[in-house]
Write a structure and sequence with these properties.
Blueprint (H helix, E strand, L loop, with lengths): L3 H16 L25 H17 L6 H6 L3 H4 L3 H11 L1
């Protein structure tokens, strides 16, 4: 069974991957309070879609079957994808 730290490492991987595509001023930090999908996020809409794509691919590799794109499109993203911490908590509760 995976624990909280393993999900944080999962998100850290996604953040490191997406940071390779971002300017220095847009790079995300891997801390629980980092905003992902809010007015305060460093990601624009394309950046968020890219983040979700990388996240889903990595989750599938780890046999975590959560449809994050569906969450984004159905308007649940403010709760689930608001911060790194909320994302980790969602994965932990819905793996």
């Amino acid at each position: 069974m995976k624990n909280n730290e393993e999900y944080i490492e999962l998100i850290r991987f996604v953040i490191e991957e997406i940071n390779t595509q971002l300017d220095c001023s847009q790079k995300l930090e891997c801390n629980l309070d980092e905003r992902l999908n809010s007015d305060e996020s460093k990601l624009d809409s394309l950046g968020m879609l890219t983040f979700i794509n990388i996240l889903e691919d990595k989750c599938l590799e780890l046999s975590i079957n959560i449809d994050f794109m569906n969450i984004l499109m159905n308007g649940d993203s403010e709760k689930v994808l608001n911060t790194v911490g909320s994302l980790v908590k969602y994965i932990e509760n819905n793996k």
